[in-house]
Design a protein that fits this description.
Largest sheet: 2 strands, parallel
Helix content: 25-40%
Protein name: GDSL esterase/lipase
Strand content: under 5%
Order of helices and strands: HEHHEH
Number of helices: 4
GO molecular function: hydrolase activity
Keywords: Hydrolase, Signal
InterPro entries: GDSL_Est/Lipase, SGNH_hydro_sf
Strand order of the largest sheet: 1-2
Shape: globular
Number of domains: 1
């Protein structure tokens, strides 16, 4: 039921973003969430919730795992592509796209300066609002460090 509510929320946000009028100055795109929208923050964390090995990423443009918990692009990637296709440079009527880069994970070392102004992805798999969210990853991690700890 919770995954249905999350999916419904994402679809609603997507539809509202497509239907709402565009502000001229709004160009940054910041993402918060869990594994449904994570673009690789967990690659930089000590966690068992990882997506940096095959088969993840087989349908991504590079055909390599990126840390996304999908086989290709996720919802923020699709929104970002749509946003780039509809926004134009100031006064430019040619329809040239604004940039071609993806929104980077917040923990990525490549996210500096101008890339941060474009936006950042703060999502991380295994997080949630409840205290027991992701506890299965913590117990696996601690049992790996010290097999005698019982959680």
């Amino acid at each position: 039921m919770a995954s249905f509510n999350v999916a419904l929320g994402i679809i609603t946000a997507l539809l509202l973003s497509l239907a709402s009028p565009r502000a001229e100055g709004a160009r940054a795109f910041f993402i918060f969430g869990d594994s449904l929208v994570d673009s690789g923050n967990n690659n930089y964390l000590a966690t068992e919730a990882r997506a940096d090995l095959p088969p993840y990423g087989i349908d991504f443009p590079t055909h390599r795992p990126t840390g996304r918990f999908s086989n290709g692009l996720n919802i923020p990637d699709l929104i970002n592509i749509h946003r780039k296709l509809t926004l134009k440079w100031d006064g430019d009527k040619s329809g040239e796209r604004i940039g071609t880069e993806m929104i980077l994970p917040y923990l990525s070392p490549e996210l500096t300066g101008q890339r941060l102004i474009v936006g950042a992805n703060f999502a991380s798999a295994g997080i949630g609002v409840l205290n027991d969210t992701g506890i299965q990853f913590v117990s696996v991690f601690y049992s790996f460090i010290n097999p005698y700890i019982v959680i």
